[in-house]
Specification:
Blueprint: E1 2-7, E2 11-17, E3 25-28, E4 33-37, H1 50-66, E5 77-79, E6 84-89, E7 99-104, E8 107-112, H2 121-154, E9 160-164, E10 171-173, E11 178-182, H3 190-202, H4 211-220, H5 224-237
Parallel strand pairs: 2-4, 6-8, 9-11
Antiparallel strand pairs: 1-2, 3-4, 5-6, 7-8, 10-11
Helix pairs in contact: 2-3
Length: 243
């Protein structure tokens, strides 16, 4: 269950309660502060200690210094694994209907009303939300299917997969073999997506990054070092973290 708590000086905090959680965890991303805990521990969360508040505020400042939203213009084109997202003015869009999306010949055209003002920050926020929705939808269609294909091909088993908007990592795997994948993976080429998916599948066998983990990865990817360098460069050069 999720709820939002306003807590000065932090502001909005997303409070998530889950029955299978044994301890309280705190996470800070570019868009939110989240506390995940058991329903039995909710009453022990607040008030937050001064040390915890200071840690959250410092983490937020560090992320905000790094996180610079990519400015979107009418001429902006964004390449995903399978689509080119582009903006197209459409005189038919009037009144409350400001946008329409349509796939056409390998492209996702985002139609907007001609009087839409790209220079306003609130309009930029709207466009970024729309782009994240497109990425999430594409990720839901592709990533679970591709994860299953890789698991079957290389002999892995996983419990479940969830698609999220994580901006600090491409994916993660829990001790119970539950895999989380960021929809920002769709900004990578197909071979790097597979590289990340297999990385998380390897964690279903080895939870750490020890010798056995890397041995398993390198039996699948003989060019492991090259792919790893490409992934790091892609994270730095792409729109990851900035949409």
């Amino acid at each position: 269950m999720k709820s939002v708590v306003t807590y000065p000086p932090i502001g909005a905090i997303e409070l998530c309660t889950r029955k299978n959680v044994l301890r309280t965890t705190f996470s800070v991303s570019a868009r939110r502060v989240r506390i995940t805990t058991s329903p039995l521990l909710v009453k022990t969360i607040f008030p937050l200690s001064e040390e915890r508040i200071e840690w959250i505020m410092a983490a937020r400042r560090k992320i905000q210094e790094k996180y610079v939203p990519h400015p979107l213009l009418p001429t902006t084109e964004i390449d995903t694994c399978f689509l080119k997202i582009r903006f197209v003015a459409d005189n038919r869009l009037v009144g409350s209907k400001r946008f329409a999306c349509r796939k056409e010949a390998g492209a996702m055209n985002v139609y907007y009303a001609p009087d839409f003002d790209f220079s306003k920050q609130e309009m930029q926020d709207v466009l970024h939300r729309l782009l994240r929705q497109i990425l999430r939808k594409e990720a839901l269609l592709y990533l679970p299917m591709r994860l299953t294909e890789n698991a079957e091909r290389y002999g892995f088993c996983f419990d479940s997969v969830r698609i999220n908007g994580a901006t600090s990592r491409w994916g993660s795997c829990s001790a119970t073999k539950r895999i989380n994948l960021s929809f920002y993976l769709m900004l990578l080429p197909a071979d790097l997506i597979d590289f990340v998916l297999v990385h998380e599948l390897c964690h279903t066998e080895q939870m750490n990054h020890g010798e056995q983990f890397y041995r398993r990865m390198k039996t699948i990817f003989s060019d492991y070092d090259l792919l790893n360098c490409r992934l790091k460069k892609a994270a730095k050069d792409s729109l990851f973290l900035r949409i």
